[in-house]
Amino acid sequence: VAKDGTKRFSLTMQTGQAELLPGKPTTTWGFNGAYLGPTIRAIRGDRVAMRVRNQLGEPSTVHWHGMRLPAVMDGGPHQMIEPGGTWSPHWIIDQPAATSWYHPHPHGNTAKHVYRGLAGLFLVDDPAAAALGLPSTYGVDDVPLILQDKVLDKNGVLREDPKPTWGLMGDQILVNGVYDPFFEVTTTLVRLRILNGSNARMYNVEFADRRRFHVIGTDAGLLAAPVTVDRVQLSPGERLEVLVEFAPRDQVVLRSVAGDNGIDEGDYELLKFVAADQLKPGPSVPQRLAASPRIETPAGARERKFKLSGSDAINGREMDMTRIDEVVPAGASEIWQVQNPVYSHNFHIHEVAFRILDIDGKEPPAYLQGPKDTVFIPRKSTVRLAVQFGHHTDPKTPYMYHCHILRHEDEGMMGQFVIV
Ligand code: C2O
Ligand code: CU
Ligand code: CU
């Protein structure tokens, strides 16, 4: 923290050697280390200043996925950092508590840069959320889980052979970059902040003993009240916060089970939980959570339509860095309809928070009714989103919207909008 109260963070994109398989060094990329990056933490109202250095051999960017900020600070493909260069964005955190993240966004190369290990969490806290008394001791009862899949050969070499349609997708699941991980539970209630940080893989997450757990937050903030479930689905880029109850000596595996979305979703063990003989009593699951009103659109709200075509275009057009596709008035609430005629995709919008109004005319599952920035769109279906745009105007610098299956994003399933 600087004298003027600014919180300063320094990130260096670098290459390194990580032990992704036991005893085998893998050449990887990371922020301030060999693989992944530090968890950044800030409080609503903070002024943050980043210093991002690129020590890779090629240009890249760092995008703050989930952050509400001016377009020039967003870290999309227009804010390239050359090799050896530094980029210093700064902004005031003005959004509710949420689990956000950061990752590269160079147009055409995002898949490769993320797959090699460049990603980290960016947690936003706020006083209203803090007053709920949720578990919040980082790494003890407030635990991030970054889910990623890799192909590692027997020598530990990270393979980059893209699969047809989906691109880089592996059968080796890592959690926070760790192979065959376990977590020692020491409290009766644990909060997990789950990020699907994979390039394309979907996860259908449940406990092997089918215990129920409580979803408390979606991408962009807390739900109005906890929703009890026995399984959740996360597509790439999505986050969920959940609360899980444990008893002494519990041993249970968190796993992902096969689904039917047409994306190769297998059965995988994610993480083993091993509870101590005695657990420190945690808080109970609260009845109510977010105080912030849900995102509504006024009568007569502007409606925009997007049709995902093939694996590389939106409304029949591939991404063009020089074309502005949509112009949105500052502070607007709009309905965005996204139609997906063929394969499964998902859809992420920079800068905004949205609520899923419906999926093929039906209400989304209760646990997905919180504020979001990324939504899964099953094949042959249409979603409607109530989108709340921010107030940072800039007629020249666009934000992106795109499929977060990174190969599709790289191939051009992305568009640009400005806020004016
Ligand atoms: Cu997570 Cu445009 O990205
Ligand atoms: Cu984003
Ligand atoms: Cu896609």
Describe this structure in words.
- There is one protein chain.
- A 6-stranded mixed β-sheet has the order 11-10-13-18-15-16, with no helix packed on it. Strands 1, 2, 4, 6 and 7 form a 5-stranded mixed β-sheet that branches. A 5-stranded mixed β-sheet has the order 12-20-19-14-17, with no helix packed on it.
- Strand 21 and strand 22 form a beta hairpin.
- The longest helix is centred in the N-terminal third of the chain and has 6 residues, at 110-115.
- The chain is globular, with a radius of gyration of 20 Å.
- The chain has 3 helices and 30 strands.
- The model has no long low-confidence stretch (mean pLDDT 96).
- By secondary structure, it is mainly beta.
- It folds into 3 domains: 7-127, Cupredoxins -  blue copper proteins (Immunoglobulin-like), CATH 2.60.40; 142-280, Cupredoxins -  blue copper proteins (Immunoglobulin-like); 303-419, Cupredoxins -  blue copper proteins (Immunoglobulin-like).
- The protein binds CU-O-CU linkage and copper (II) ion (2 copies).
- CU-O-CU linkage is lined by residues 63, 65, 103, 105, 237, 348, 350, 400, 402, 404.
